Structure formats: structure tokens, C-alpha cells
């Protein structure tokens, strides 16, 4: 079988699923996309447009949409799952009767499931028991991808066939696909950065400057890395596209839905109003709750996640929280170089010397 015989199935009719379906079709693959909304299916098949999620972009006419999972999945070699985390497991279960062990299953979703604190590729693995499982993540704002703006992503899998099939299906002159074998690290990076994108949007709405955003992103990376280490993940992965790359874009762009939720709240909207006016998924809202609770339970120091949680769910004004965070205990810059504990020890020694 040649690469071009690969049939690609995309589950999900949102902005990212649609953008990825169109790339694979541009690359010459046969692509079938599953959506639950019959009217959108008709628009994609007739007008080659997705008026709800990507109204301004033409979709490659080789993308064929359907509400029938069986038809979409038959003969598919590669299955991309682009469904928000809250519905991810439910959709995988719906698809399960037509999934086959030889298929390659890839999550493109950057979120965490509350039940069991599971990442999406874990759900793919647990629900199917199949061997070819991966995750796609990187600085990939869907509307820019649809515009064919140059960018790159990461396909992470322990399975070499998964990595090479996805590179072949999606890699092109505007979308580079880098490989990683750290599935957990890549997936964790994509989920965690959404938290800080909300905070960055809020800071921008409050008129905070570029220095502030730079500090926020850098401390976010420190906090994400601390969490990764606590979960047994490799923090070095965060130096790549799925960590720092995605953190930069989502904390800097009004195209990010997470950033926009933060921005709307910084301008005075409630969380419910901000989410409702978005009309699309902002995974960070759920992720911050889950990560904060886990960090709390496991004693992981995550002041930004805790602060954002207090603003989102406990009604603490964002500006007061920013002040509080700035007055927090001064600590180490790069903990892998100077451990936080050593800074505390220095302080204790100085205070003892001064008779404090
Ligand atoms: N958009 C982006 O820029 C990027 C997004 N991602 C990730 O991709 C994931 C998917 O997001 P994206 O495409 O952006 O999402 P959107 O919010 O644009 O769309 C969500 C899609 O999922 C569908 N959906 C939701 N619940 C269900 C369900 N129970 N059954 C069937 N379909 C359902 C929606 O269908 P309906 O319209 O019928 O509700 C819609 O087609 C997100 O988790 C995000 O983290 C990753 C990189 C970039
Ligand atoms: O992950 C993304 C870009 O890489 C998209 O971010 P949002 O979900 O915040 O739009």
C-alpha cells in the first residue's frame, strides 16, 4: 500500500478538525469527516465551507463529510479525533464498533478528562486497547492553519508507524510535522498552556504590558515543568513546539479562545458570559480546575494556576490576585539550576544572621 492509499477519517467538525481534514485532502489523501450536525455536513459537501467554525476559508472538495460514523471510519487507516475533552470519551465509545486494531488513532485535543485525570490519548488506548496511538500538538491556531500560514506541530507516539503515517498525511510546505516519542509530555504541554493563555488574556485586558506577559509566560513554563516532574513526565519536552511553542502563541494571540475568555473577563464579563459569547471550546477553564485540585492534593506549588482558579471560580478580582502573586515569596528563577529549597535556606540563614 502506498501513502496515498491511506484514507483519513476526522472525527469532529470544529475549527481544528476541519483545518486538519483540509490539509490531508490538499496532500492528496481521501478524507472523510464525521460531524453530528447534518446542516454543516451539507455545507461542507456542497459549498466546501464550514460556516459555523471556519466561515472564511475554503475546504478542499476532497473532504467528504457525513453524520454516519460507520461510513467515515470504513477503510480509514488514520483516524484523527478532534472532539473537545468533555465529549471525547463518549465519541470514542460511539465509534468503537467500527475501529480496528490496525488503524492509527490520534488525538488532536488539548484537554484533560475529569474522571481519572486522563489525557485524551490515554482514553484512546483504554477504550480500544490498540497499539497505534498518538497525539498531535503544537502552535496551531486553527484559523491560521486554514489560511495556510506557516507553522509546525508535533506527532508524539511510542509507535514509529504512527509517527511516520501522520508526518506523511499532514506534513506539507506550510505545516511541518516534527516527531516525538514523549506522548505524555507533548499532551500535557498542550493541555497546561491553556490555563496560562486565560491569565495572559486577562492581563492584557487590564492594560498590563509586554514585560508582564513575558514574566507570566516564563513563570508559566516553570510551573508547568514543576507539575510535569511531579507526574513523572520529562520537562525537556516543554522546550519544544508543544510546550514553549504553543505557550507563546496562545498567550499572545486574540485568535486563541482561551486568551479571549481571559480577555473578556478582564473587561468585566463573568466566566459564564465569557464562555457563552465564545461559542466554542476553551479547554483551559476546565483544565485549571482539575490541575489546581491535583496540585493541591499532591502538594505541587502552582501559584498561577491557584490564582487563576480563585479568579475564575471564587470571585477574587484579577487585579487583586495579580498584586497578591507579586507579593508572594521570592524564589528561584530556574529550579533545575538553583532548587527552590536552596533559596529558602539562604533566606533562613540571612534572617538568622540578622537575628530575625
Ligand atoms: N481550534 C484551534 O485552534 C485548535 C484546537 N485544538 C484542540 O482541538 C480540540 C477540538 O477543538 P476544535 O475543533 O477547536 O473545537 P470547536 O469548539 O471548534 O468544535 C467542537 C467540535 O466538536 C463537536 N462536538 C462537541 N461535542 C460533541 C459530541 N458530544 N458529539 C459529537 N461532536 C461533538 C462540535 O459539534 P457541534 O457543532 O455539533 O457542537 C464541533 O464540531 C480542542 O480540544 C482544542 O484543544 C488544537 C489545536 C488548535
Ligand atoms: O491550541 C491552540 C493553538 O495551538 C488553540 O488554542 P485555543 O483553544 O485557546 O484557541
Automatic annotation (TrEMBL):
Keywords assigned by UniProt, alphabetized: Cytoplasm, Lipid biosynthesis, Lipid metabolism, NAD, NADP, Nucleotide-binding, Oxidoreductase, Phospholipid biosynthesis, Phospholipid metabolism
Matches recorded under Gene3D superfamilies: N-(1-d-carboxylethyl)-l-norvaline Dehydrogenase, domain 2, NAD(P)-binding Rossmann-like Domain
Reactions that this protein is recorded to catalyse: sn-glycerol 3-phosphate + NAD(+) = dihydroxyacetone phosphate + NADH + H(+); sn-glycerol 3-phosphate + NADP(+) = dihydroxyacetone phosphate + NADPH + H(+)
Domain (Glycerol-3-phosphate dehydrogenase NAD-dependent C-terminal) ranges: 182-322
Active site annotation, chain numbering: 193
Pfam families: NAD_Gly3P_dh_C, NAD_Gly3P_dh_N
Pathway: Membrane lipid metabolism; glycerophospholipid metabolism
Protein name, as recorded: Glycerol-3-phosphate dehydrogenase [NAD(P)+]
Species of origin: Halomonas litopenaei
